[in-house]
Amino acid sequence: MKTSILYTLLFCAASTGFVGWRLYAVRTQATPHYEILEDPSLSHVQDCEAMVALAERAVHADVTANSTLTILVVGDQSTANEPWRLARYPIPTTRKAIEGRNAILRRQQDLLLDVLRKCRTIHRTTISPIFLGIKQALADLRAQGCDGTSHCQLFVDSDLEENVETSIFKRAEAIDRRTPIPPRLLDNNGIAVSFCGFTATVSHLTDSSGREIRRASARGPERDDRLTAAWKSMFSETEGVAFDPYCPNP
Questions:
Q1: 118: three-class secondary structure by DSSP
Q2: What are residue 69's DSSP bridge partners?
Q3: pTM exceeding the 0.85 threshold for the entire prediction
Q4: How confident is the model over 225-243, as a mean pLDDT?
């Protein structure tokens, strides 16, 4: 009799401890946040399906109840080169035990459809302050609590052709000449940065009426290699920076 009581007490203590540990783990679990930076410059082929596909990756990633998806757009003269926020969404997760899979899929689909609708309202620009856009996107993720344990991610859809911060081009040329690289400027500790679509360029730049403004700079393998190397060298955690010539399809 005494033995059975002892086992019962031990079982209750273990159960209570496990429940307490789970509650503590949930409270202290790092929250991953996701951000997309879109480059709407005329030299870059704008593809709203690519934005939807990147949003889809965030929606289907390892998220928690407080995870968010933010979409920033690279700025221009009208925003003093600062990026502007297109949207911020709470990423749908199962909130109730009785909530079915179809319900969460509908909420995910509504989010992606809204991303597509908002993407189609973006105006094209003639300048590309990409560096400032990335810097502010990283700062925005930091403000949401991203740190070395949060597993946050920044997606950048751009052709990499910065034409505001001329130091970017100096870095590219320095890499080509094998001269020392300036200090890294972007702190991405704990934030994975994924560039995509840098080969999606156009040969002629046209305004909204279709009139040709100028020819775009010719691109080749060496130019692409210098650009990706220059951008990678700007981050504090280079192993957390990846480049994909094409963005995914939804």
A1: helix
A2: 34, 89
A3: no
A4: 92
